[in-house]
Amino acid sequence: MSDTLAPSDRFSQGMATRRAVLGDDHVDRAQLASTDFDRPFQELITEAAWGHVWSRPTWTKRERSIVTIALLAALGQDEEVAMHVRATANTGATHEDIREALLHVAIYAGVPAANHAIKIVKQVFAEMDAGKAA
Length: 134
Description:
The protein has 134 residues and is mainly α. The chain is 78% helix and 0% strand.
């Protein structure tokens, strides 16, 4: 958190969850790229999204991952879809889980949104498979 405040328990929990889902490399890159301008935003999402929502015990990380991908696909948030598909390596959401989520997107948010997300997901899966082969 900012230099003047000690991290809250919620922030610390959020950072642990964020690292568990997105991986240390991703979080370290985000922190290194952070500036005085966007540091408050990074703190907000770490505490609110990762500390309040993703850290709740009711759903598993796999379930949250599936829902998050569907929501981001429905909203057309391409970069976030790709990031959360990559995170499935840590959350346990399977290719089949994501396919089912995108079928829901097609019905409830529109075929174009799902079609575009499927294109992104296929590309990310190919990149992930290539990384495993290397």
